[in-house]
Amino acid sequence: MGTDEHVCPACGQPVATVVQRYKTLGAWVPRWVAGPCWNPKCEAYAGEAEYVPRERPEEPAPTEKS
Asked: Is the pTM higher than 0.70?
């Protein structure tokens, strides 16, 4: 087992590893894949407009017990 470093297929620059998940046999399983390329000179560049951070769902308001 070695270290797997992901690189951009267009420019060859190293890219971050991100975790995606998929469901198999009723369980969520992680899958590590190459992240977006942040090299501005690359044709596969993931600009700022493409990056949308996920927001956590709002927690339900606390209910008062009588």
From this structure: no
